[in-house]
Design brief:
mainly alpha
Length: about 110
């Protein structure tokens, strides 16, 4: 990353965000309603929810899906004007696929 590989940085940031979203716990409908001030949670972490634990297989599936998404987008761009974008999408997918070596698909 020290060489400022923009494709790798972009792919890894997006994939980390996808993993973070996958760990999120759905908010209950009751939690979205406003409470009276005296019923509001108080204190550090009072409104925090435990994150979902992802298995190694689930993480690999998310990384694989992110790579597939980039390859699909690259295949959709056929105009010569998009050659740079296609190369970047393929480079991002290659970065992600390197992390999957040794992780067979489910």
């Amino acid at each position: 990353m020290r060489s400022r590989d923009k494709a790798a940085v972009s792919a890894l940031r997006a994939t980390l965000a996808a993993l973070d979203n996958a760990e999120a716990v759905p908010v209950a409908e009751a939690a979205t309603r406003g409470l009276a001030l005296e019923q509001s949670p108080v204190g550090v972490g009072a409104t925090e929810a435990a994150r979902r634990e992802l298995s190694e297989c689930a993480v690999a599936d998310i990384v694989r899906a992110e790579a597939a998404e980039r390859l699909e987008a690259a295949s959709q761009l056929t105009a010569p004007a998009h050659a740079d974008r296609v190369a970047r999408l393929r480079a991002e997918a290659a970065v992600l696929l390197r992390f999957l070596d040794g992780h067979p698909s489910a």
